[in-house]
């Protein structure tokens, strides 16, 4: 009998700028093969499952989210980036140029667009 090592599961909402930020960071840290991605859309079964898991864990559902250890969940893209950067020994501020480019360039514009859509009464996700 072999013990399969735990692989963190990362839930990413399509069209979510915070989820994209995490995915960029994990990709740049070469974590792609070390995590399992669950990409979902608002209202689908994967979102319902995640909401139930987070609620049961006492966490307000938000995205991205990760099962960082069996039964242990975390949210907040920057916290997750810091966690995994620490695990692989990189500094997300200096060692991840694509992440820095996203944070300083596209990300603020993406957030402005999301806020504008919310202000207009639309669900941007």
Q: Helix/strand/pairing class, anyone?
A: alpha+beta
Count of domains: 1
In percent, how much strand structure appears in the residues? 15-25%
**Largest sheet data:** 4 strands, mixed
Shape: flat
Please give a structural write-up.
Helix 1 (17-28) packs parallel to helix 3 and helix 1 runs antiparallel to helix 4 (97-119). Strand 1 (9-13), helix 1 (17-28) and strand 2 (36-40) form a beta-alpha-beta unit. The N and C termini lie far apart (43 Å). The longest helix is centred in the last third of the chain and has 23 residues, at 97-119. The model has no long low-confidence stretch (mean pLDDT 92). The protein has one domain (9-119): Glutaredoxin (3-Layer(aba) Sandwich), CATH 3.40.30. The chain has four helices and four strands; from the N terminus they run E-H-E-H-E-E-H-H. The chain has a four-stranded mixed beta sheet with strand order 2-1-3-4, sandwiched between helices. It is of the alpha+beta class and 125 residues long.
Please give a handful of descriptors for the protein shown.
Glutaredoxin 1; four-stranded mixed β-sheet; single chain; 125 residues
Summarize the topology:
Blueprint lengths: L8 E5 L3 H12 L7 E5 L4 H12 L8 E5 L2 E4 L1 H12 L8 H23 L6
Parallel strand pairs: 1-2
Antiparallel strand pairs: 1-3, 3-4
Helix pairs in contact: 1-3, 1-4
């Amino acid at each position: 009998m072999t013990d399969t090592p735990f692989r963190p599961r990362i839930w990413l909402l399509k069209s979510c700028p915070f989820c994209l930020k995490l995915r960029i960071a994990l990709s740049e840290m070469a974590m792609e093969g070390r995590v399992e991605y669950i990409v979902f859309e608002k209202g689908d079964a994967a979102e319902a499952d995640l909401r139930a898991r987070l609620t049961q864990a006492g966490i307000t559902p938000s995205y991205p989210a990760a099962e960082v250890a069996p039964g242990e969940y975390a949210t907040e893209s920057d916290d997750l980036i810091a966690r995994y950067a620490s695990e692989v020994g990189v500094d997300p501020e200096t060692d991840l140029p694509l992440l820095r480019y996203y944070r300083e360039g596209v990300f603020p514009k993406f957030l402005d667009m999301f806020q504008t859509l919310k202000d207009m009464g639309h669900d941007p996700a």
